[in-house]
Amino acid sequence: MHPNDPLRPPLLEHRSLLWLVAGISAAFTVVIWPFIGAVLWAIFIAIVFQPLHRRVLAQVGYRPNTGALLSLLLILIIVILPLIMVTVSIVQEVSVLVQKVRSGQINLGLMVRGVFDAVPEWARNILERFGLDNLQGLLDQLATLLASSGQAIATRLLGIGTYTLDFVLGLFVMLYVLFFLLRDGRTLSRRIALAIPLKERQSDRLLTQFATVVRATVKGNIAIALVQGTLGGLAFWMLGLPGPLLWGGVMALASLIPAVGAALVWVPVAIWMVSSGQLWQAVVLTLWGTLVIGLVDNFLRPILVGKDTRMPDYLVLVSTLGGLSMFGINGFVMGPVVAAMFLVAWNLLTTLRRQQAVEE
Prior knowledge:
The protein has helices at residues 10-32, 36-48, 50-59, 64-103, 108-118, 121-129, 135-149, 151-157, 165-195, 200-238, 244-254, 263-275, 279-304, 313-327, 331-359. It is mainly alpha-helical.
């Protein structure tokens, strides 16, 4: 048919193609959605370990398959297997803790009551004003639930650490996708840059910022979380508190939340220690949490992250909390990445409008 056929104008064909691409992309997203977490983490890990892969590739003579396989093995040994082992140990510790609660060796109701009694009067008034004065009763019910549920509750709370079919399948998908991302990463990034309907300079800036934010967020947040969780668990172990590995893992997860961090765990424990008469232990934990755990973020984040993200602290906080709410554990990366892409997109639009204003 003639290219100037009025029944098929170029503009209509172009728009139809765009709608077709958008529709098929949406359908593809629905298809892979059950494994979206595995795919995202494969992308994140490939971006973070790209410098390592380049070194491995240089050592093997730039053989793509061999280099990707060796890089994958290194990532598996250095990162993934240790995390799986720690997670399994945490699950086992949760099981022991639940058994102690069931047998009465640990009375969570008394512990909660002690913390509530140690709260100042003005703080109690605030809790009563917001209808939270019965918090003790709610936590007592939680303790009863934990005591009666046993091993099943512990397993479900940390389902990622159990060897279920979903976990094994997700891990396989992540490693499989990661291999091809390491091998074909540069080719894929060039194809994506060409497919984005922007100028080459704008596409490069967008993809560069995406990789920078992912690398800074994953590298900085995970490293800081591991250090703070380790220090917190060490403090709990030295003070003879039950479940130090478990609470270290909880503090590592809590440290992913900006402005709150590991204090969400050790502050209530310090208050409980004061209420139970363990004054010097409470002082040691408070000093350790404030001077050691709390300052880790201030020292390590500039070194590991630097100014790569270039986002205000309030935006990091809101985007991280929103990402965790929307995407679960993947959200601590997805949230800041979406926020950074939001800033980059608006900056690109602002720059383009300024250039058009100057030309006019």
